[in-house]
Design goal:
Blueprint (H helix, E strand, L loop, with lengths): L1 E3 L2 E3 L15 E7 L8 E3 L3 E5 L13 E3 L3
Length: 69
């Protein structure tokens, strides 16, 4: 599960995700750690500032690592 403000969506098996209706402004892109398999862990949220056209943001990512790293 990936979140940006009140927007949330699930990633697919490759980690790709799509969030719709994002507000302009600052926010954090967060991976919900509880939604990850036990062998993975979320890394710190990524801060983003969205302009007036948030549809222009592509390839935003939040690292997820093996639990032992």
């Amino acid at each position: 599960m990936v979140r940006f403000g009140k927007a949330a969506g699930r990633s697919d098996e490759t980690g790709a995700f799509l969030l719709r209706r994002l507000p302009a402004g600052k926010g954090e892109l967060v991976v919900d750690a509880a939604s990850l398999p036990p062998d993975l862990r979320a890394v710190a949220p990524r801060a983003f500032k969205l302009g007036e056209d948030p549809a222009a943001v592509e390839d935003a990512n939040v690292p997820v690592l093996p639990a032992g790293q």
